[in-house]
Amino acid sequence: MYFLTGWPRRLLCPLKSEEEPFHVQPSSQRFYFAVLSETQLSVWFSRPSVLIVSYIESAKASSQFGFYQQAEWKQDDSMIAVAAANGYILLFDVVGGGEDKYLYEPVYSKGSRGVKVTPGYKEEQCAPALSLEMKRPIDLEAPITSMQSLQEDLLVSTADGYLHVLHWDGVSNGRKAISLCSVPFSLDLQSARGGLCLDLKGVYIRDMTYCVTLDGFAVVLDDGRLGFITPLANRITADQLQGVWAADVTDGTCVAVNNKYRLVTFGCASGSVLVYSIDTTTGSMQLSHKLELTPKHYPDVCNKTGAVKLIRWSPDYSVAMVTWECGGLSLWSVFGAHLICTLGEDFAYRSDGTKKDPINISSMCWGAEGYHLWVITSREETELVENMEEAPPQTQQAGILQFNFIKSALTVNPCTSNQEQVLLHGEDRLYLTCGDPTQLPSGSSESPHPHNLPHGGEGSPTHHPSPNSTSQGLSTLLGYKHWHVVQIHSTYLESNWPIRFAAIDTAGQCIAVAGRRGFAHYCMSTRKWKLFGNITQEQNMTVTGGLVWWNGFVVVACYNFIDRQEELRLYLRSSNLDNTFSSVTKLHSDTLLLNVFRDMIILFRADCSICLYSMERRHDGPNPSASVELLQEVSMSRYIPHPALVVSVTLTSVRTETGITLKAPQQTCMADSIILNLAGQLIMLQRDRSGPQLQEKLPFCPPVVLAQYVENVWTTCRSNRKKRHLLEALWLSCGEAGMKVWLPLFPRDHRKPHSFLSRRIMLPFHINIYPLAVLFEDALVLGASNETVVYDSLQGPREGRESLEGLFPYCTVERTSQIYLHHILRQLLVRNLGEQALLLAQSCAALPYFPHVMELMVHVVLEEEATSREPIPDPLLPTVAKFITEFPLFLQTIVHCARKTEFALWNYLFAAVGNPKDLFEECLMAQDLDTAASYLIILQNMEVPAVSRQHATLLFNTALEQGKWDLCRHMIRFLKAIGSGEMETPPPTPTTQEPSSTGGFEFFRNRSISLSQSADSIAAGKFNLQKTFSMPSGPSAKGSERWSKDSDCAENMYIDMMLRRHARHLLEHVRLKELGCFSAQLGFELIGWLCHERTRVARVDDFVMALKCLHKDFLWPFPVTPAGSISSPLKNGHRRTVLSQHLLKSQSADSLLNSDMDTAPPQAAARNSNHTWLDGLGALGPTEPTEMDTALSHGGPQTQEAFLSPLTNKTEECSIGSATDLTETSSMVDGDWTMVDENFSALSLTHSELEHISMELANKGPHKSQVQLRYLLHVFMEAGCLEWCVVIGLILREATVIKQVVNFLDSPEVPHETVQSVRSGLLGVDAWASTDCLGYKPFLNMIQPQLQKLIETSVEQIQPEAFLPGASNSKLSEPQPGGPSAEDSRGPALLGLALPLEPSGGLGTEDGGVPEEQEEQAVDEGVYDCTLS
């Protein structure tokens, strides 16, 4: 509503004086301020805030009259009355300085607009020269306690108990004195006739204020009692006054009245402010509410403020400022919403934590339109806030501070378009919530200018909205933290200050402001203001009833000074601002309020009547025009006692009659009701549909009161069938009571509504912000709040005095928003309207914060009920729990709520929602593993460790099965912590899985065999988070030390056993890709385990099925053959360097980085005939790796040559390096060979050769898959699983691999079963290829010699000596006793690190190895089953 901004300003008096000011009083229009010191009366101007004239009393007169005490202005600002201490009233005439006498004049640069064009134009931008002339003093012969200015009279109360009515001229009719004892006081006007009156002997009036709308005086008597005196006739005479007093109050100190809301506010010695209303029927004073600091927010000051010293209502009566004897300022809205207090937080404490003394105030008043608060600090305070300039102290009259405020546009112009945008205006700028410019509706023709981008919250670029968008999207209004600040055009401002009205259109793109005369408007997309081109037109009109946007027009209710006529004007936004482009409609009475509903205007006039007009946009000329037609007039004088009491008027489609059904949403477009806010009372007039049905001419029914204490109303003209609850509701802001919503209730599924069910229901709910806008579809309230920044450390105290920056924090205004849906759902459930709550919740289930709404609802109810001291007869939590089960996010809601609630409340929560074990199992059944992991933490705290372990095992197995490696790592840590009996920190609820977790093998990048040095740089960004886990993301070269600290721990054996079992399961089902991911992500020792399982699960039973599975798993295409033949076109047997270094360079690095690879492409160098590609993978021996590392550690320009392997050449062993596999994004695949390099022209490839090359490329799978397959090939080679090596060699079509395996099979140490298996497997593949997959035939033909050799050797008898313990040359021997087990060791003793390259190398196992392994496996299985059971 009102928000403090910046630092206060200090006003310095240029006159030398040792007297300090102590009282300030504004004129009726607040352009002039009378400032009193003991013998001096000064008049200050508002803008600029300068001293105009000062009257200094002579010493002789001062001794006669006494020191000045208070001042009062005449209503027309022509006179000032000053009360002096000795009972004198001094009257001063305020005399203007004549035609061309100005104290301050603006100085313009050449060519600017500051030219005097119209009479009186110059006066409005200059400080006038005034003089003060004292008239004859009036002696009242008693100390004066209070003064009040009336239209023609001055009311003065004196300490002898008299009330004096003086004429302002002080001469003509003399004065009348009324004794307070003669005024009858009673509790109400009815009992006054009975004669029960208050005894007022010796009592006088301490403070009094006149209330125009109540036509009476609110008084505080010197004994602390509160009263209200009403004149029974037009004139104030002794026998025509009647008083009522407030019961049970005896500590009143001061009084102020609110004319707009008919409220009387009394300050009390206790520090609270009592707000009374006057009952219209009995005339009694009824306590409406209190304004007081609560112990909740101000525990240390709420009872230590002292008595209330001053209360000041803002000019628009929407907020009240209060100060106390002990100092400080506090701001409240009219019905008690607390906005600002300077007794706490940064106002009360310095940045180092020391407490500041609150600022002590002797007098204060609001400036014009409430943009400033003029404050005079008390004498001792003045010394503190004295300016730090080096001038002599006696020249500093430094007691006046000016606090700056910005306020909501709703305070004075509560039109519909201002209700969905937050628009604040200060004296020279506007604050808008324009939202994040990047998310505005598309359709903009211009890009934002870089120099207009937001800097320090000063603004943001904007776009044109799409023409059909009537409301900004959620992201637009919420996605941007800063305000868009628009500076009001200085030319308009200097002659028309202050700004009185502001309005923004529904799209948030156009703003209009109106000051003293004329108006101006601003467009966000062009960033330009439009002012009247003709200043005379601007100065000849003043906006009276506000302004509003409609359909590209500004609708203005104004007064025309030339015709002396009230008018309704519509100006087209896109044309020049000129009366020739306006549509003018004459009005019969002054307009007080203006609003728009669809194509209708509603006016509230000073004669208490309401007029409805229809508007139509026409395109009958070069520019669109608008026509306005009067539809209806409704007189409200019977119901409205004073026109100034109407706060807002709204035309709406909201109605109560039985026509509300789900079948008729089209009727929501009609203007069915008028809603008036009459002094906080919400009154509704519905159309009377009982007569003939002429829609827009229908009469209105008598008014119905909907609610009390209403500050703002929000409604919308939009309709949305899916969210009818929210769009057809009426939203009310009720100050301290929070908000209310008048919600429609719809029958479900087109059923007939219950006769006993009301059509609407009023639901109250509390929010933590002051609401300024309601986003209907998004179930959000937008607001603003004051924030402070302390800068006292920048300027230390000098000469014992503090600067303003040290005394006050810098105030900023922050945008805020709040969800309210959970409050409404809860209120419906409390009232047993669960069906309506379900309809409402389902309509909002798509909102991004809907899960948060559910959590909040559970959390609030749980906190209230579980911490209640008394038993709750009808608890709501079970109902809420049952309600949430209707939504799929039930399980997440409960567990997230529990995790954010203290442990002591868990039993109460789960007693209502169900056993956490059952909920955990539901999560598993629903495959929601992340939520199940959260429930595991609940179980760990609520159940014994055995239960936690059992459920953790279930979750671990499921996570393994689904490949959720991140969760698996958490579960390993969790299980280990249970085993060790100490859970340092509960594992956090796992977030969504990393996209790379199921991709390439991260294990690869940590191994000594990594194929490219750049792998780390590619994967580092993705996996740096994993390094923070206590569980390693993949084993390093020191993987054998995994969990070595507690390797004997049973938990580790238990976890290892589960990991082994899962690996076995994956291998049995030929899921090699998952096996690789599993090993890489969880640090599983794959090679050691495969050595263990070499003769068991690592066997291949069906080569064809395994080959098919690999094709499917790795997205590897089955090979195809050219149409001509299956023989190679390269018949001459020599090898051509087809893809050279130039080709590799042509692949952009981006395609490698962006293809979601976790390792860089392996670039194997072409070796001599004795070496295979496997040599580069670590199988050479201790002398080779240095050469390989050198070759691999250089990327980019030093890439090695790569070659295509000729299929017909059986003698040369040359692998196709993986660098020849072009990524799918490469242009090579498209046959664009001419663009590669000029050197290719020398190759002169034939058509058949090109066809062969393209066939090779077509037969390759994704690059990532190739990296993974080569890695797996290396692992199986190291582990000695020769069957799998054959299968992978087949899919990669690597003849060298097949040849090497066949050479190994010659060794007497290889089991006969393996030889048989490879032989039969290859024969099976050959048979399958001959019938189903001819693409494999060329490759099979190529390895025909190896196959033949295998068939021949397999019939020979295997020597039994090879399996005896004496085979000392075994490279596959089991580790010696005392050494690391084969499973945990990765040392040189492993098979693959010393694989023989010649057939003579021995391969075999020690005798007895297999039974021992089988026995160990049996033990493992037994332990596993036992634990699970």
Describe this structure in words.
The structure is a single chain. The protein has 1429 residues and is an alpha+beta fold. Helices cover 25% and strands 24% of the residues. The chain contains 36 helices and 58 strands. Helix 18 (945-962) runs antiparallel to helix 19 (965-980) and helix 22 (1050-1068) crosses helix 36 (1409-1428). It is elongated and about 140 Å long. Mean pLDDT is 76; it is low at 385-397, 436-472, 658-666, 982-1048, 1124-1242 and 1357-1429.
What's the quick description here?
This protein is of the alpha+beta class and 1429 residues long. It contains 36 helices and 58 strands.
Total of DSSP H or I helical runs spanning 4+ residues: 36
Derived structural class: alpha+beta
Low-confidence sequence ranges: 385-397, 436-472, 658-666, 982-1048, 1124-1242, 1357-1429
Question: In percent terms, what proportion of residues is strand?
Answer: 15-25%
Number of strands: 58
User: Radius of gyration, rounded?
Assistant: 44 Å
Helix content: 10-25%
The dominant shape is elongated
For the biggest sheet, the summary is: 7 strands, antiparallel
Query: How far apart are the first and last residues' alpha carbons, in Å?
Result: 66 Å
Q: What is the average per-residue confidence, as pLDDT, rounded to a whole number?
A: 76
